Every structure is written in C-alpha cells, then in structure tokens.
Amino acid sequence: MNAAVAPGRQVAVRVPATSANLGPGFDTLGLALSVYDELIVESLPEGMLEVHVEGEGAADVPRDGSNLVVKSIAYAFESVGRRMPGLRLRAHNVIPHGRGMGSSGAAVVSGLLAAKGLLEGDAEFGPDTLLRLATELEGHPDNVAPALFGGLTIAWVDELGPQHKKLLVHRGVAPLVFVPEFTMSTEVARSLQPLQVPREDAVFNVSRSALLIAALTQSPELLLAATEDKLHQNYRASAMPDTDQLVRTLRAAGFAAVVSGAGPSVLVLADGPGRRLEAAALAQQAVDTPWEALMLAVDFKGGTVRDHTEGST
C-alpha cells in the first residue's frame, strides 16, 4: 500500500441524524434531520490511536480500533490502497444512540467523510463511491443515503450497486421526534418481521409509499394517509409497546406519526409548525412514558467535511 497521510492534517466532519422507513417506505425512504454529530480527526504517526468522545454514548463508545468511526476510516483507506495513519478523534455526539435516529449510519458516514478529507488530493471519493462504501459497512442504503446527501432520499440497489435519488421536502412539513429513555436493537426489531407478507399488504404499502413522495414534496395535507404501513410496524409493536401506544394515540388524533427507523423513537411529520405544537402537547397529556420532544427541521445539506488543519483557510 502507498504511504499514509503525513501527521498533523486535521479535518472537521458534521453529519445529520436520519429517520428511515417513514412508515410505508421500508428499507427505501429516509429523511435527514437537523441534529448533528461533529467530529475532528487529526492524522498522527502510524500505529497511534486516540479517541475522545463527549455527549451521547460517551460512556459506552469504544476507544480502540473497534470504534465504528475508526473502522469506517480504515475501510475507506483500504478501499483505495492507502495505509491508514495514526488517528486522534475528538467526537461530539448529539444523535441519540439505539433510538432509531441513525446514530450508527452517522458514525459510518462520519468515518468515510473523514477519510475523504484526509486523502483529499490523493484519492477521490465521489457520491457513488461513498454510498457504496457506506452501504457495505452499514448494510442498508436507506440508512446512510440521507446522512450523506441530506433531504428526502429514495434508495435502491441494482446491478451497479446502491443508488439514490434526493428530493426536496415541502416547506410546510415540520418534523417532530419523540425520543424515549429506553433503546431498541435494530437486529431484534428486524427479527420480528416475517419473511413473507400477504399480497394485499404489499400492494397497500406500494400505494402508500408512492403517495408519501407526493405528500412530502407537494401535498403535506396527505401525510396522514400516506404514512400508513402494513409491512413492519405492527410486527414490531410487541417489542416496544410504549412506542406503539404513542403512534396509535397520535394517529387517532390525525397526526402522521410513525416509528422512526427501527425505533423506539416516534417521528411525526406535521403539516406545519402549529400542528407540530399540537402533537407535542397531546403526547405530553395522553401517555405516561416520558418522551423528549425534538422540534426539528429537514437537513438539506447532508454530511460535510472541511479542512481543519491549523493555518488552513
């Protein structure tokens, strides 16, 4: 392999939270949200590794080579035949861990963007390459596409590999995320789904997914009908009854509430800021479980990386 990056180079990375599925768009649709993990990565002499973490997951995130950001950086370097330098990582995590807001996808994307920045001028990482590497590491393109590119993303895989299409979200859509104190394993959530579903349920979700694209980009008043789902949420409900109760309570009151990713957070796609406030008030009154209400915006930029080396412009 070619020589590693010289010590002293620094890059700053910023990656948004995401919510995947959005109800009917299982393993296909994702939305970038205005909560961000930030990371400064500095190249050190080969063999050295320092990992500093503050914020979400600070007590649990590995400080060695098993750290997901470190693994993603190493994967990117290996993909272009470069030796990885030593690293100093300083991470400020805000995205909740284990709550269906894309923390693992954000870590993967953070590592890939850090590698892109460290190798700038020596190796190129275009959008297609980044999506491919992120999908290989994370497993599903719908979880990493919005973190990479921002906005509303449609992700799919064809003979050329993972693909995506980014769409702009109607300015009337006001996201609200309810985050609980408890967590949920994505692997456990997926294990509760059957390998086959009734044909009528598949047709139902195809129609709602198509409608959801229209609702998010043109007609927010259709969001309640557009977020109905029969493929995954009902099967997972028994594993997170408090999440299921909140979703049902909000939907019964006319709010487009869905499980965020694999859960247990709940995403509400409100039709305007006023409706978002109403949803937050209803949740506070109607359920006993404490939920943190995050009133967010759609992130349209996706992950970013910039040179942070001292003296750089």
TrEMBL record:
Catalytic activity: L-homoserine + ATP = O-phospho-L-homoserine + ADP + H(+)
Domain GHMP kinase C-terminal: 225-285
Source taxonomy: Bacteria, Bacillati, Actinomycetota, Actinomycetes, Micrococcales
Role according to the record: Catalyzes the ATP-dependent phosphorylation of L-homoserine to L-homoserine phosphate.
Name by which UniProt lists this protein: Homoserine kinase
Organism whose genome encodes this protein: Microbacterium hominis
Designated gene of the protein: thrB
Pfam families referenced in this protein's UniProt entry, alphabetically: GHMP_kinases_C, GHMP_kinases_N
GO biological process: threonine biosynthetic process
The keyword Kinase is assigned to this record: yes
